[in-house]
What we know:
This protein is an alpha+beta fold. It is about 30% helix and about 25% strand. The longest helix has 15 residues, at about 95-110.
Amino acid sequence: MTPADLDAVLALQQRCYGVDFLERREAFAVKLAVTEGLDCCWMVRRDGAPLAYAVSLPVCEATLPALDAPRCERPPKPTLLYLHDMAVAPEARSLGLAARLLERLRERARALGLARMGLVAVQGSVPCWQRQGFAEPAVMSESLVAKLASFGDQARFLTCDQ
């Protein structure tokens, strides 16, 4: 994914998420900038049409970005690959794109030497992520709880080992 894909990202985001979860172009742009050269963000197209995307970042709990964060940092020693966002166009949901993107994320985490992945589950998606091996950690830091609040009351932070 490159900055040229941001219009497609924003359009897919609007089709897949409620208004409380929409992020500005600048929020995506800073995530792309801090992951430059790490191959952590992807756009899936068919015949030029955007079908899905995934945005992930190597982070530690202290650097995990809040929703629509205007800044983002690349820690010197990340502890997990954070799947910040994955969206699949409604008409493409039967194509297995989410599963393929998740497998690619797992491969990327291992290639980066990260033993864990994490994500924030929203819009009732916890059961879906649990079927993929993700679970809520027993303990979360206060800073992580505060960032999680930016995603809404129903948001849950989930992790899985690779």
